[in-house]
Design brief:
4 helices, four-stranded antiparallel beta sheet, 13% strand, alpha+beta, disordered C terminus, single chain
């Protein structure tokens, strides 16, 4: 059974609102954690949480993920703007699954958090340090999880997952 254009538009609006709420939450958590780190740990200082495995290490990163493109602020800003545009297009272009909706929200919130840092300070505050990995932050984590959700959503067979706005009570027949 095909949905009416009005219902499709309502579903799109609800998906967009869910994604924006997710983005706002990620942004607030990211900025809050960065503020705590910046006010309590000196740049370059490291506080072990799990000795030999995990520490809080306050650094400033003027590059992208893993420090790539360090010093290329204009390229990183343009890349961030393009990514945000693509994510918004995905949300507005049609029905989305829950994975797509929340994946887009995570990416938007993380991108906004790191983008604010770049615009205001020219660099991003990073602080989570596993001994075997690069130092990163909550925004980076949200972006990574968001991309993973988008990949999972893309791998689902078309029509195989419920829309983010479908409810079990709406299902009137077996598929």
């Amino acid at each position: 059974m095909e949905e009416s254009p009005t219902k499709n538009q309502g579903n799109r609006v609800r998906s967009l609102l869910r994604a924006l709420a997710t983005a706002a939450l990620v942004f607030a958590v990211d900025q809050g954690l960065k503020a705590v780190v910046e006010s309590s740990i000196r740049v370059g200082e490291s506080i072990p949480l799990v000795p030999g495995l995990l520490s809080l290490t306050h650094i400033k990163n003027d590059g992208g993920a893993f420090g790539i493109l360090g010093g290329s602020q204009l390229l990183l800003l343009v890349g961030s703007a393009v990514a945000v545009g693509v994510v918004l297009w995905m949300l507005l272009s049609g029905p989305t699954s829950r994975a797509t909706t929340y994946g887009c929200g995570l990416i938007l919130g993380g991108a906004a958090g790191n983008l604010l840092d770049r615009l205001t300070a020219g660099e991003v505050t990073d602080y989570v340090h596993f001994s075997f990995w690069y130092i990163f932050n909550a925004a980076d984590t949200a972006i990574t999880v968001g991309v993973g959700l988008l990949l999972l959503s893309a791998l689902q067979p078309e029509g195989g997952g419920r829309s983010s706005n479908d409810h079990p009570a709406d299902q009137t027949s077996l598929r």
